[in-house]
Automatic annotation (TrEMBL):
Organism: Tractidigestivibacter scatoligenes (Olsenella scatoligenes)
EC number in record: 1.1.1.267
Enzyme class name: oxidoreductase
Alphabetic keyword roster: Isomerase, Isoprene biosynthesis, Magnesium, Manganese, Metal-binding, NADP, Oxidoreductase
Pathway(s) served: Isoprenoid biosynthesis; isopentenyl diphosphate biosynthesis via DXP pathway; isopentenyl diphosphate from 1-deoxy-D-xylulose 5-phosphate: step 1/6
Binding site for 1-deoxy-D-xylulose 5-phosphate: K138, S162, E163, S187, H210, S223, N228, K229, E232
Entry's Gene Ontology BP terms: isopentenyl diphosphate biosynthetic process, methylerythritol 4-phosphate pathway involved in terpenoid biosynthetic process
Pfam family name, one: DXP_reductoisom
Transit peptide in keyword set: no
Protein task: Catalyzes the NADPH-dependent rearrangement and reduction of 1-deoxy-D-xylulose-5-phosphate (DXP) to 2-C-methyl-D-erythritol 4-phosphate (MEP).
Residues given in the record as Mn(2+) binding sites: D161, E163, E232
Full protein name: 1-deoxy-D-xylulose 5-phosphate reductoisomerase
Amino acid sequence: MSLFERPGARSPRPHVLRVAVLGCSGSIGMQTLDVCRQHADRLKVVALSVNSSCERLVEAAREFGATHLAVADASRKGDVALEEVPSGCELGFGPDAVTELAELPDVDCVVNAVVGEAGMAAGYAALKADKILAYANKESIVVAGDLLMPLAKPGKLIPVDSEHSAIYQCLVGERDQDINRIWLTCSGGPFYGMTRSQLSRVTPGDALAHPTWTMGPKITIDSATLTNKGLEVIEAHHLFGVSIDDIHVLVQRQSRIHSMVEFADGSVKAQLGPSDMRIPIQYALSYPERWSAPTVPVDWCHEAPVTFGEADEKTFGCLALIKEAGRISGTMPCAANAANEVANAAFRAGECGFLDIERIISSVMKATKAVPVDNLAQLAEVDARSRQLARSFIGEVRT
């Protein structure tokens, strides 16, 4: 099934798109609100969620006039900031309350910017409710692609990741059967060109210093390990129906080419632009239209030359591991993703080394028997078991 609407089949979008922003206090969520701020005549924020940042939730509700709010962390119910929630707002607590925002009748589009496995249920609910799903929660597709993709109607599932937005844009007007391969670009992260010996000594502070993008801490570490790129390979596999081995990771240090598609006749389409996530966010909200730029365009006459390189899967073993999880398929991507989330957090907390992230993912994968994906409850069980295993392996690393 194609993600794209065909001529004559398109349902016009409402003049003012009613938007729910899930994870509005994070990097993607805040940039989404900036796009909504710049296009207030086209976008109306009606629902907002945060994990625990109650003060930011209240601030955003006041600014945008949102009437439906949710805090995923139910322990924050007594947060003093919530005393300032505007009158007339509905406020819920817990993961289910976040999911319920995705199903509201007065929501047209759900921007899923929740980090990690936690956003999976909301993405599933949005598609089930026939909403437009603009998602930055790649784990939803990586872990539950077998469940979500059959629900995705043409024009209703639009990626926000810069790379997948680029591929999506390159494929508009093209036939699925004409895709030869996808060139999935990456900056290479802050450690590009380093040896494993050098990587064994890097710190969380080193890893958080991304050369070209401003992102949240979890995804910035994933970019440093290239785990993020492995997850994106699996994501592209589900989204665009291309095999894992026909998706090639290409290092593009300047982050100007956001990805490319090669077609059967040898032609290649690429999407280029600034390293600013507001562009793919806005495209997901404006599709099939294009609105005025949310940032300063690139002056190509004064740009440094773009360069290309090959991703080193031997040095950055997480990339190879996650791709292998995608080849195995079934519940293995769920296990690998859960292991990475635990290991990533442990590295940021100083509980393990940089290369231990790879070892922990590998150990969890070896201890996991993949089976076909049946439902969200099954994936929740796999996720919980894999996290427990990962924590036990972290304990072994520390001793």
